[in-house]
Amino acid sequence: MDAALPRSVLIAGASGLVGRDILQGLLADDSVAAVHSLGRRELPLQHPRLTQHRVDFKALPALPRVGEAFVALGTTIKVAGSQEAFRAVDFDAVLAVAKAAKAAGATRLGVVSAMGADPRSRIFYNRVKGEMEAALSALGFDTLVIARPSFLVGDREALGQPVRSGEKLALNVSKWFAPLIPDNLKAIEAAAVARALLKAVPAAKGRRILPSSELRRA
């Protein structure tokens, strides 16, 4: 991208771990002229370049003109309450935002998926993530960057999210046994995922997958 051109960016999922850091990174970037955040509720944040849009992801309105988009929507089956409710967020809502962003002019898309994403997987979670990736690939974005983090860790309490059992254990295990654990399997900070996407989306061409090991290095 031409660094001299002002960027107008859309983000969905800014209330989550990765989305929060993506939003902060966008607002700190002087090349970004406008940020449009989509959410079911407004964030307790004000910034001269930030416009918040309260939306129903099942019926998105026409969106402002943007050049790129970041989607960090996601939940768990436990939090969602059922496989159907999980799919409504991690597939339906993600795809709806991507389609709306493309209709608004976005040519670049960055999305948070998960390690193990595979549309043929026998594991429901991985299968939905894989189907989501395939559906986004079919939309024809000039640039599609897919982040596949392993176990995400971060300050969930600050976001009012339930702390996942085993999260601290996973992080400690990754630290204690770091030399023995492959990079793709180590727990990863949400901020690292955000930094990798913020770096890759404006620069990448075509479809690019960032495995957890590459997210860590970024």
Structure, described:
With 218 residues, the protein is α/β, with parallel strands linked by helices. It has one domain: Rossmann fold (3-Layer(aba) Sandwich), CATH 3.40.50.720. It is built from seven helices and nine strands, in the order E-H-E-E-E-H-H-E-H-E-E-H-E-H-E-H. It has a seven-stranded parallel sheet, sandwiched between helices.
Report, as a whole number of angstroms, the end-to-end distance: 19 Å
CATH class category label: Alpha Beta
Write the CATH architecture name. 3-Layer(aba) Sandwich
How many domains, in number, for the residues?
1
Estimated helix fraction: 25-40%
Estimated structural class: alpha/beta
CATH superfamily: NAD(P)-binding Rossmann-like Domain
Keywords:
218 residues, alpha/beta, 7-stranded parallel beta sheet, 7 helices, 35% helix, globular
Q: Which SSEs are present, and which pair or pack?
A:
Layout: E1 7-12, H1 17-27, E2 32-39, E3 50-54, E4 68-71, H2 77-80, H3 83-103, E5 108-112, H4 124-137, E6 143-148, E7 152-153, H5 167-176, E8 188-189, H6 190-200, E9 206-211, H7 212-217
Parallel strand pairs: 1-2, 1-4, 2-3, 4-5, 5-6, 6-9, 7-8
